[in-house]
Amino acid sequence: MKIWILNHYAIPPNSAGGTRHFDLAKRWLRQGHQVTIFSSNFDYMKRAASHSTEKCTRELADLVEFVRIKTRPYSKNDIRRFLGMMDYAFNVLSCVNDNDMEKPDIIIGSMVHHFAVVAAYQLSRKYQTPFVLEVRDLWPETLVEMGALSDYHPFVLLLKALNKFLFPRASHVVSVPPFVHERIIHYGVPRTRITHLPNFVDVERFSHNKIEIEREENPFVVMYAGLHGPSNGLDVVLKSAYVLQQKQIKDIQFWLVGDGPEKAALIRLSQQLGLSNVKFYQSMPKNEVGILMQKASAFVFHLRDLPVLATYGISANKLFDYMAVGRPVIFACRSRNNPVADANGGITIPPENPQAMADAILQLFRMSPDELKQMGRNARQYVVRNHSADVVAEKYLKLLERIVVYGRSG
């Protein structure tokens, strides 16, 4: 098959961010399929155009073909980011038309934003080929619950209208969060045309012989590695660091690794609180951050208390990365599903509660080396069984093959 993937933010592992589609493409290539990923030339983590400024250029990353689409830069979530989304949609279509590209057998439109899916739909019409709508997060519901926009904001109304238009026209819908189908069926999509294919981890990036915890480590490092965005609520992590600093516990440090729109504010908050137990690290390529993650004693996963998570659940790349390293995870999220509890791989606490987070960290800090090691092993074994890239890629490929043969699967 010739597979096209439209994902504005797709990256290879030598960049910082999620590598879902690169990891899928790499495995599909091994089985003889052709895969092309259409992504932006603008690095949203670095806030810089890190590739050619031509309308579209091709490059290979470990034999995976990327077509880089020119989009305008932005520094925060404002009108320029919206215009960048529009750039992506229009320039994908223009790039394909100008370069007379060979017809694909199937197109995946990843709803990191709706306009990538609109472009996927338009290309599917042009080539008379099926397209898969992949739901990564539930928009616009998440925007409204975070307080970013009102329920009657023009952009929210636009996204709702696009949902009503796009979902019924997809050959199949792939949902990344586990229970999103309960919402999608209200757009007229039969349950049989919705498949849950979660996020996953390339377990080979985290060598098993490096996962043992040495209790002699000093300090005890609590790490967060990922986007510093509004929904992550990392101010709660800093406030828990303040609680422990006030207790004069000097052997616990917090390492926050990554970048994002909230990072500058988080650094200011750390300075205001006078925190000496917090270190900030810049974002790193996926294939490098794993090395730093080996230095963690435990990880913290925190999301704001949003009803959408309690209703539809989560499937977070960073959480599965943490678990694959083989360390305990503090799961601070009110979600309908809880991989950490399922694995017995850490401690679950309510979100937005710095005292509860500080107490959980102290609980781990006071555990024996054997207890910590067992928690870490449990976490890793769980993702190997349930969220391995090889397992998800094989299921996804079989779904695509059925759709190509039958037009619609389900």
Gyration radius, rounded: 21 Å
Biggest sheet, in brief?
A: 8 strands, mixed
Residue-averaged pLDDT? 89
Spatial order of strands in the largest sheet: 5-6-2-1-7-8-9-10
**Which architecture of the largest domain per CATH?**
3-Layer(aba) Sandwich
Which CATH first-tier class of the largest domain would you pick? Alpha Beta
Dominant shape: globular
How widely separated are the two ends?
20 Å
Task: Find the CATH topology of the largest domain.
Answer: Rossmann fold
Count of the domains: 2
In CATH, the homologous superfamily of the largest domain goes by the name Glycogen Phosphorylase B
The total of helices stands at 15
Unreliable segments of 5+ consecutive residues: 208-216
The counted number of beta strands is 16
Which class do the helix and strand fractions yield?
Answer: alpha/beta
Helix fraction by DSSP (H/I, runs of at least 4): 40-55%
Q: How much strand? A: 15-25%
Which key features would you list for this structure?
16 strands; 42% helix; Rossmann fold; alpha/beta; 410 residues
What does this structure look like?
- There is one protein chain.
- The protein is α/β, with parallel strands linked by helices and 410 residues long.
- The protein has 2 domains: 2-200 and 388-406, Rossmann fold, CATH 3.40.50; 204-386, Glycogen Phosphorylase B (Rossmann fold, 3-Layer(aba) Sandwich).
- The chain is 42% helix and 18% strand.
- It contains 15 helices and 16 strands.
- It has an 8-stranded mixed β-sheet with strand order 5-6-2-1-7-8-9-10. The chain has a 6-stranded parallel β-sheet with strand order 13-12-11-14-15-16, sandwiched between helices.
- A hairpin with a 4-residue loop joins strand 3 and strand 4.
- Helix 7 packs across helix 13 and helix 11 crosses helix 14 (369-386).
- The longest helix is centred in the first third of the chain and has 21 residues, at 79-99.
- The radius of gyration is 21 Å and the shape is globular.
- The protein starts with a strand and ends with a helix.
- Mean pLDDT is 89; it is low at 208-216.
